[in-house]
Amino acid sequence: MLRVEGLDCFYGNVQVLRGFALELKAGEILCLLGRNGAGKTTLLKAIMGLVRPRAGRVLLDGADLTALPAHAVPKQGIGYCPQGRRLFSDLTVEENLQIGLMARDRGAAVLERVLGLFPVLRERMRQRAGTLSGGEQQMLATARALCLEPKALLLDEPTEGLMPSAIATILNTISQLKSEGVATILVEQRVEAALKVADRILFVENGRSCESVAADILRDDPRLLHHYVGVGLKRESMGVRKS
What we know:
This protein is of the alpha/beta class. The protein has a domain at 2-86 and 151-228: Rossmann fold. The chain has nine helices and ten strands. A six-stranded mixed sheet has the order 6-7-8-3-9-10, sandwiched between helices. Strands 2-1-4-5 form a four-stranded antiparallel sheet, covered by helices on one side. α6 links the parallel β7 (152-156) and β8 (183-187).
């Protein structure tokens, strides 16, 4: 479904991604784990056309997206929720969602379905996005990406700085999207949260895609977490429903 083949990406003369490769199936949740600076965010930007690779390809259902301008990539069916949310803070919730709908010419039926995932946004439609709480802003950023009816969804640190109840809402939504066939790449620093929803973990180190491991294996044997991320597991519940 989504395939990345041998991406080399640079910022100026500094190489950030080195031969990066991954494959994502429909309905699969893949979490990228690695230390800060490993290249996870750069990979998402490269998929979205925001960083132009010097080598390699990005394929969606066999179609090569690598040469497309950034504004054309969402039209192919990839939704992106960047780190920091990047909302239009002076626009209302409704106006932010309308921007998402316009990206692939979607209408009221899609908007209604998205609001069903985040009911609190229905109550905030006339409110400026910049006045929402952190959790509500993240819900809006995710909802805006879902207004594209994406085949694949890229989420960069969606739980950063959120309260546990908001984290649970975001992760439950990701799990629900899986049942609808949406493929998700999740960049997440909260290892316990990632393992609750992910099917597979791909470790990223020094700009390279390293080992890919089923999440169930890591729950039982977290030694790879120590090697690639330098953390252990905290056995805590975040109220996430597995679909």
